[in-house]
Amino acid sequence: MRSLPSPHRGSAAPEQGPSDEALPAPANAGPKRDWSASLDLIHEATAAIRISEERAAELEQELERTVARALERATALEAQVAAAQSRADLAERRADEAEEWLARLHDAVVEGFTRRAPAEEANPAKVATP
Prior knowledge:
The chain is an all-alpha fold. Helix content is 65%, strand content 0%.
């Protein structure tokens, strides 16, 4: 390996150390590793992680928008249900009133068109009802 000149040594030429080829390989050294391939895999993995995180962030934003729309829709539906309930209550009150008037009208028609015996017509209060 070559060393850079040191400002403390002066302007002498850099020292030459033994080259990597001249050094004997240690006895337990395995096959030479391809570190560039490992670095490439690390770069690919970090890119995949980054893309996954970006997609997760996009999905979270979409989820927030969907939840907001669902809450707005739920609020609108609750208002519609309340309005429908109010209309149903009003319609029920009107139906009850109509039934009451219909019963009165029926009673008046039955009373007005029912034939009475001659004794009843002369003195309707004295006639006993069975």
